[in-house]
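Think of the structure tokens as a kind of shorthand, similar to the way a musician reads notation: each symbol stands for something richer, in this case the local conformation of the backbone. In the example below we present two proteins back to back. Begin with the first one, reading the sequence and then the tokens, and try to describe in your own words what changes along the chain.
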Amino acid sequence: MTTTATPYGQDHFGFATEQVHAGEIVGGDFGARITPIYLTAGFVFGSFDHARARFAGDDGGLVYTRYGNPTNAAVEARLTALEHGVDSLLVSSGQAAITVALLGILKAGDHFLSAPSLYEGSKTLFRENFARFGIEVEFVDDPHDIDDWRRRVRPNTRAVYGETIPNPKNDLIDIGQIADFAREAGLPFVIDSTASTPYLIRPLDHGASIVVHSASKFLSGHGASLAGVVTDGGTFDWAAYPDKFPQFSTPLGGAGTPTLVEKFGATAYLEYTRTIIAGRLGPVLSPLHAFLLQQGLETLSLRVGQHSRNALAVAHWLEAQPEVSSVDYPGLPSNPSHAIALKYYPRGTGSVFGFTLRGGIDDARTLIDSLELFSRMSHLGDVRSLVLHPGTTSHAHLTEEERVRLGIHPGLVRLSVGIEDEDDLLADLAGAFAAVRATRPVRATADVAAVFAEAELPLSA
């Protein structure tokens, strides 16, 4: 799909320049400096033959907003530049991005491998919804054990999946190591980079094949709209595996006609996912929401840099509190993922992480209800700081045994640290911890009373 976007690309400018200028449409009929919102369902054809050419894909023009729109295309071009990809597709949410990205590869009877630590919504999508499609997911036990990945490859395995910064435990994976395994196995590596954004890491540069984002989070940044994006690196050789991925090597119109790879080259996967998967299933992103995403992208580096600085300060502060048993932030030298953080995330490790209170759910409740600056809500990547208790919200559907195995303990609290002043965030947390400490004497008295009652002794004994 072609646009009249300006020719900014990864070989021309730095990240901050590209986040402002890449893909933008300047001018138009009225000389608008900002890419306009093309809020239209369809596009007019100049003639009978013009319509036929459009539907045949001969002139690269627009047919219907479900398949493409100038506003969306401009934002897609910007995201492609920021990720160092070859093409991108905007959809209606992060879940839609994950779904269409994998359905562009997988079909009924296929199997794919995944890292064990993922956003819980992705896990339920794979285990329940994909299972109904006849697609099986298998989670490796140890993502750092490449032999574990290799042992699980089957004749019907078709993809590898993971996250850059898993939510909420932040147990990082070695992206390059897994990418090497996937390449050796002839499998595309799809990775969710929502919590990191291309400002902190470009997974395609480390060997991943396809990147997905919930653009509702850091990419948009302001919690105002939903969006998702799929970016193709254009590096996986689909034509080398015609039996595994026949959709890319089957002639489009029968014998004698070109295949997707022959017609579209490096963008064959994205073209198939756009037209056959997303275009038919219909998770289209409104041009209005694409415009809001575009506005957010213009300040991405400024916001994510501040997010990461604040999060590191908060993590250090939390680690020093006696009520805290652990802080799951890779930026801390004490964290098990710190070595990987130094290797892949020189600009920081984002701002979404969990910490566990020794006092369990009672302390978590007191702390969360005592916070004033942090908003209690299910979201992340907002300019505002947010807080949530995973055990009673996002992971409440799991059994206690499953939660413990995942490290989702009763005292686990998840933060999405915003861009407010560091001192104000720490003061808010200090006030909440003071409230937790204030409940301790009451609880201690209650515990002593219970012990004496059980022993049938007077409390004064």
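Once you have a description of the first chain, move to the second and do the same.
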Amino acid sequence: MKIEKLYSRYKTIISDFHDFMEFIKRPLVQSFRVNTLKAKKNEILLLLKDLELKSLPFYNNGFLLQKKSSLGNHITHNLGMIYIQEIASMIPVVVLDPKPDEVVLDLCAAPGSKTTQIAQSMENSGLLVVNEINRKRAQGLIHNIKRCGLLNEAVISLRGQRIDKILPDYFDRILIDAPCSAEGTIRKSKAVLYHWGLKNIQRMANIQKGLIVSGFRALQPGGTMVYSTCTLAPEENEGVVAYLLDRFPEAEIMPIIIPNFKIRPGITKWQGEIFDKRLKSCTRILPQDNDTAPFFIAKIIKRGMYKRRIDYMGKIEFEGSAVEHFYRRFGVDPKRFKGYSIFQNKGMSFISTPQVYSFWEIKTIRKGLEFGKIYGQEIKPDNDLIQVFGKKANRNYYEIKEYQLKKFLQGETVKIDSRPGISKGFVIVTYKKMPIAIGKYNGKEMKSEVKRERRIPL
């Protein structure tokens, strides 16, 4: 199918259709956000000094590349300090505005761009329930969760249409970035041209209606839900939100304002069908306005009395031997781990928020972040744990030289001079005073312990 034919059905709802078509055929600009769960923003930007960057005016942690680069091979990407993400894809979480210590659901989570963005807004606190029905896609999701250092997540895998049966009136905020016909992804890939069709649009709309109803029922009174898609089809956008409004009088659409970012209102007429006038408060993002992919976003609240979780902290399980070994080896104050749950799972120690540890209502496939594994009287900490908790180490750390850095992150061994403060065994490797990885020192050389799947390509 030709691009012109696919999008011709939207001529009546896009006044500047010629401009739309001009931009929809262009490749996307490269964009990403810095991950402040791993390091401070200015520290990450220091590692990106070789790139020409421009900050996004609407989102403090978002950037675009002025000059094309292989960003996926950059050390900051492999270390989880940045997440490559399309500009419009960042907007749903900006609109959701999750806060620390809240209970949040990401209903359709893979591959994890918005999941990790939510956790960053929550400052790695509270409880973030992350759902992905497809187990294969869930593995990619978990890879990104770990890469970005999340410890407030509980990953589940069930049909999104069932969540309300298990957890009614439960979540403070919910994101439904719904599976869709993906018309807006054409600037990234032409794949949509080969599977697009009206039958597929209708099939996706039926799935989306089940998801939005289930999500709304799982939202607690006073809570906020964001529904988003990367498609233009009104059947999957305003039509789905209209379906929710018809069924639930307590549902209310909230206006969306994004400073320094142009948005357009939702539509109320489509092919002879008249939608609720409140749908104007929905948001359409078109490529010609901000040079992004197309997106649709609706912000919905559930009217009613908010039920505050009084003094809810969850059970704190504290497996102290891992912390003790970590302290003895690296000198990190055990108080640094106060308030977290540390527990064993299949021979590995994990760390999470107590809310995550106490989440039992649904079987999880992952909780929290790997702390490390104990071998006799020694602990091998996890690489991602080191980046989150290793900055206060005062012994057994090594500031790697710039000429050694790439080689080490490729999994190779580097020679180092014997020096005080470093004994044989596992060592925290730092760069520009940031902990980046674990190495093993034998008295002469530092062997890289960076896992194969996280190494920088040769």
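Compare your description with these statements about the second chain. The chain has a mean pLDDT of 94.
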